[in-house]
Amino acid sequence: MECPMPKTPLIDALNGIVSARPPIWLMRQAGRYLPEYRELRGQAGSFVDLCLTPALAAEVTLQPIRRYGFDAAILFSDILMVPFGLGQHLRFEEGRGPILAPIQTAADIPRFDPEGFHAQLGPIYETVERVRAELDPSVALIGFAGSPWTVASYMVEGGTSRDFARLKTWAFADPDGFDRLIARIAEATIAYLDRQIRAGAQVVKLFDSWAGAAPETVFERAVIAPTKSIVTALKRDHPSVPIIGFARGAGAMTRSYVETTGIDAVALDSATPLAMACALQADRPVQGNLDPMALVAGGDALRAETDRIVDALSAGPFVFNLGHGIVPQTPPEHVAELVARLRG
Ligand code: CP3
Predict the structure, then answer these.
(1) Is 9-343 a CATH 2.40.70.10 domain?
(2) CA of 124 to the centre of ligand 1 (A)
(3) Confidence of residue 40 (pLDDT cuts 50, 70, 90)
(4) Of all atoms in ligand 1, which is nearest to the CA of residue 207?
């Protein structure tokens, strides 16, 4: 008799299999809302040091799995490690977020030197190996990167922005130079995700958190085109690794994003109407989209919002998640209640 292959509910759902009990994981499931994270974060020194110390980053990745039994672990790192690997100065300041030395013209676009890049980011690949070795086979390991447009926003603005004034002005005023920046980030991202997959990531997710800031023509050049090139390159070498795309705020552009990039599944933000989610689900698995503040609120509101999403989407291939990352003020017991409700 053959031994049955271990079931991995997340990968099954991403391959289009419908299950009575949808798999669950949460964006930013490792982080400041967990006391065990805050304790370890205090020991690490800086956030960048935490991301580049495999023993600590692996431990932080596993913390939410131990506590809640999610169906997937997501590598603990940050989308800004790609600019860091390209040599851009990066630090995280308490209360302010990331700060980078901004680049503003085509002359400042960093070169992609694979050897130096992988040397800088090698500890991240080691974290992936360590986590995969510790995880139960039923729990999928997700690798990730930011999408070029969102990563470019931080590289050009020097941090989080409200209006993306420098980024968009560059995109309009010097389209050739800007497209070269986007292509350079895409090239590094392909190499980075290839290494994560080789180290043990079984699924990859592309985070385009600021996709909603791109007007139509820029969306096509800077969101769709590089996403398609990343997906095409990864599919050539790793055809069975599912790719989840998250174009937050893409709204009416979401359908074209899904249909033209080749992503295997689409992660939806909380503003996406469930009727639209259902329509997208007719040709692709969907992931989402509980509002993170409903998880903060808890109680009846959390139950009602959760049931509404599960009722609408669990007849098709579906992964339960939030529409954006968990916020630090989330009571950890609300997460436990959410998981219990899904597992019913
Ligand atoms: O658990 C997980 O989801 C894995 C780890 C992860 C982090 N960042 C850890 C983190 C992932 C997948 C990310 C992605 C990320 N990082 C995105 C895309 C998703 C999204 O939220 O839109 C973006 C835009 C970033 C950039 C970033 N990193 C910002 C703007 C900030 C500062 C804001 C904040 O929350 O502090 C970070 C810092 C960051 N990344 C923290 C964590 C746990 C908090 C830093 C700390 O602990 O000091």
Answers:
(1) no
(2) 15
(3) very high
(4) 18
Percent helix, percent strand, percent coil in the chain, to nearest 5: 55, 10, 35
Q: Of all atoms in ligand 1, which is nearest to the CA of residue 75?
A: 4
Per-residue pLDDT, 4: 60
**DSSP annotation string for 152-177:** HHHHHHSS--SS-HHHHHHHHH-HHH
What interhelical angle do 225-237 and 148-157 show, nearest 10? Answer: 120
Ligand 1 site residues (CB inside 6 A) read: 27-32, 41, 47, 74, 76, 78-80, 92, 97-98, 144, 160, 207, 209, 325
Hunting for tokens 């893409």 — which residue is that?
A: 250
Q: Are 300 and 268 a contacting pair, CB within 8 Å?
A: no
Q: Ligand 1 centroid to 28 CA: how many Å?
A: 7
Integer-rounded Cα Rg, in Å, for the chain is 19
DSSP 8-class letter at 327: P
- Active-site residues, by number, are 28, 32, 41, 78, 154
Q: Which atom of ligand 1 is nearest to the CA of 80?
A: 26
Total H helices, total E strands in the chain: 16, 9
* Tokens representing residue 289 in the block: 């989209």
Tokens of 99: 């700060």
As a whole number of angstroms, the distance between CA 103 and CA 116 comes to 20
Q: What is the pLDDT of residue 235?
A: 98
Q: Which protein residue's CA is at the shortest distance from atom 25 of ligand 1?
A: 79
Q: Whose CA is nearest to atom 24 of ligand 1?
A: 209
Taking the CB of residue 97, how many other CB atoms lie within 10 A of it?
A: 11
Neighbouring C-beta atoms of residue 118, cutoff 10 Å: 15
pLDDT band at 318 (very low <50, low <70, confident <90, very high): very high
33: left (phi over 0), alpha (psi -120 to 50) or beta: alpha
